[in-house]
Design brief:
Two copies of one chain form a homodimer.
Chain A lengths: L2 H7 L24 H15 L9 E5 L4 E3 L7 E7 L2 E6 L5 E7 L17 E4 L3 E7 H10 L1 H27 L2 H18 L11 E3 L4 H8 L3 H13 L3 E4 L2 E4 L2 H8 L2
Antiparallel strand pairs in A: 1-7, 2-6, 3-7, 4-5, 4-6, 8-10, 9-10
Helix pairs in contact in A: 3-4, 5-8, 6-7
The structure holds a DNA duplex.
Chain lengths: 259, 259
DNA sequence: CGGCGACTTGAAACGTGTCAATTAGCGTGG
DNA sequence: CCACGCTAATTGACACGTTTCAAGTCGCCG
C-alpha cells in the first residue's frame, strides 16, 4: 500500500496533508504535545523512506454535547484533542457520574496506548475536533523511537500526578478548596498552552464549562457549585461573564485553595 | 564487576540466591506478579550469559508503622512488596491525608519505572519485607524483553482502573458504599493471591488495617468508619475479631456497595 | 411570544464531622 | 504479676457542610 493510499484511506478530510494539516492551525497545543512530535516523525519518515507507509491521523469534528466514545467501546484508534473541550468520565448505573478529567487541545484521550478499550465515557463540551491515530502505528513508533517513548512516559507521570491531586480533592478537601483549586489549575493549564484571552495577563480564560460539569468533576451538586461561585464572585475573587472567567485576586484564591 | 560481586553488593541478606531467595517463600504473590518474571529473567540470563551482571533485588524488612519512603525522596530503586501490608498516600501540609492505595505482597510500589521520585508517602502497616531493584536494570529489561513490557503495561492498566474506581468512591459514593466496596475489593484481591485464611471459602481474611487507615483511604473520619462498621456487624454483614475479617453475607454486602 | 435550559436563592433535611467521655487492648517497666 | 500509659475503638450529643427541594430569574432560540 502506498503512502498516498494509506493517508487517503485513514483521513476523511481530503485537503489535509501530513506535514501541516489545515485543522492544526487552531490547535494551539501542537507546539508542545504529541501532535508536533508525531508530525515531526511523519515528516522525517517521509524524507528518509519515501516509500514507507505514512503514519497520519484522521481528523474529525463533533458538535458540543455529544458522546465521542462510549465506555468499553473497542477502538483501534488513539485520539488526541485538537480543538475544543471534552470530558472523560465514569458513570454509575443509577446516573451518578464522576468526571475524571477535562480534555483540552493537545491532550491524549487515553494515555494507555495498549488498552483498546476503557471504562471512560468521552463527551464533548464545546464543538471538538480531534485526530485519530491508528493504535498499531503508535505502538510501532513507541518501539522505534526512544524520544517518543520518553515523551509518553513524561505525559504518563504528569497525568498520574494530576489524578493524585484529584483524589486528594475529593477525599480531603472542602468544596471551596476544590473549586478554587480547579480554577487555578485550569487557568494555569490554559496559560501554558497560550489559550488565555489577555495577551499579557494570564488570568482571563475562555470557560465553556457548565456548572454541572464542575459539580461532576468535583463530587458536588450543581446547586452547591452555584453557591460557592456566587460567594467567590461576591468576595471579588473571580469574575465570570458569559463564557469567560477571570481570576481577580490570585493570592487570595490560592489561600482559599490551600495551595 | 562479576555477577557474584554485584549480587552480593546489592543484597543485604547474604543467604539469598537469585533463583529462589529464601524470603520469597512467604511471598504468596511471586506466582503472579513481577517477582516471578524477574526471577525467571535472572535465571535465563544466568544460564545464557554466565558472565553478565545479575539483575537482583536487595531484600529489606521494616517493622510496622514506619515510613518506607518519603514524598519526593529520590530513589534509584524500584521496590516490590514481598510480605506484609503498606500504604501509599498523599499528605497535605495541615495534616490531612489521603491513602491512594494499599500495597500487598506482589505489588509494585510505583508502577512508573521512569520516575525516580514521587509525591507519595509509603508506610508500613504491618511488618513489611520488600525488594529493591535497580531502576536502571528494570528499564534495560523493559527495553529488551517484550514479555516484561507487556506485563508492566497490563499492571499499569489494572492500577488505572482501580484509581478510577477510587475516584468514583470519593466523588460519588456514600460512606456505606465506600466501605462495603473496600471490603469486597480487598477480600477479592487477597483471594486472588491465595491469602485467605479459609482453605475453601474465600471470605475470611487477615485484616491488619486500623480504622484510621480505612478512614484515610475512603475520605472519612475514623469515628464515622467505626459507626458504619458497627452497623455492618449489627446487620450480620461482616464479622471482625482481632485482626481478621469475614464476610458473612456477600450478596447483601454487594447490594450495599451498589456493585 | 413561549418554552427551555442554565443559573440563583432560600429553607429544610440529611450525612458526615467534631467533641467528649468511656472502654478495651497491648507492650513496657517496676 | 500488676500498674501504667498509650493507642484503637465505641458511643452519644451536637455542629457543620452539603444535598434536596422548590420557586423564581435570566438569556436564548424557535
Amino acid at each position: 500500500m502506498s503512502a498516498h493510499l494509506l493517508a487517503a484511506a485513514s483521513n476523511d478530510m481530503g485537503s489535509d496533508r501530513a506535514a501541516a494539516p489545515a485543522s492544526c492551525g487552531p490547535c494551539l497545543a501542537n507546539k508542545l504535545g504529541f501532535c508536533a512530535m508525531i508530525r515531526g516523525k511523519v515528516e522525517s519518515q517521509a524524507n528518509d523512506h519515501p516509500g514507507a507507509p505514512l503514519l497520519i491521523g484522521s481528523v474529525h469534528t463533533i458538535p458540543a454535547r455529544r458522546t465521542i466514545c462510549q465506555p468499553n467501546e473497542w477502538s483501534e484508534f488513539v485520539t488526541i484533542i485538537c480543538d475544543g473541550w471534552a470530558t472523560s468520565s465514569l458513570a454509575l448505573p443509577d446516573g451518578r457520574r464522576q468526571i475524571v478529567s477535562f480534555l483540552l487541545p493537545g491532550d491524549l484521550v487515553s494515555w494507555n496506548l495498549f488498552e483498546p478499550t476503557s471504562d471512560r465515557l468521552i463527551e464533548s463540551v464545546t464543538d471538538v475536533t480531534y485526530r485519530n491515530f491508528r493504535r498499531s502505528d503508535l505502538i510501532r513508533m513507541l518501539r522505534e523511537s526512544p524520544e517518543f517513548f520518553e515523551k509518553l512516559m513524561s505525559i504518563c507521570v504528569q497525568y498520574t500526578r494530576r489524578a493524585d491531586q484529584r483524589l486528594l480533592d475529593l477525599g480531603r478537601r472542602t468544596a471551596d478548596e476544590r473549586i478554587a483549586r480547579m480554577i487555578l489549575v485550569l487557568t494555569n493549564k490554559l496559560a501554558k498552552r497560550g489559550m488565555c484571552r489577555d495577551r499579557m495577563g494570564q488570568d482571563r480564560i475562555d470557560f465553556p464549562l457548565r456548572q454541572h460539569h464542575i459539580a461532576d468533576a468535583m463530587g458536588l451538586t450543581p446547586v452547591h457549585v452555584s453557591k460557592v461561585l456566587s460567594r467567590f464572585r461576591r468576595d471579588q475573587l473571580i469574575e465570570i461573564d458569559g463564557r469567560s472567567l477571570k481570576v481577580l485576586d490570585q493570592t487570595r484564591l490560592r489561600r482559599v485553595a490551600t495551595m
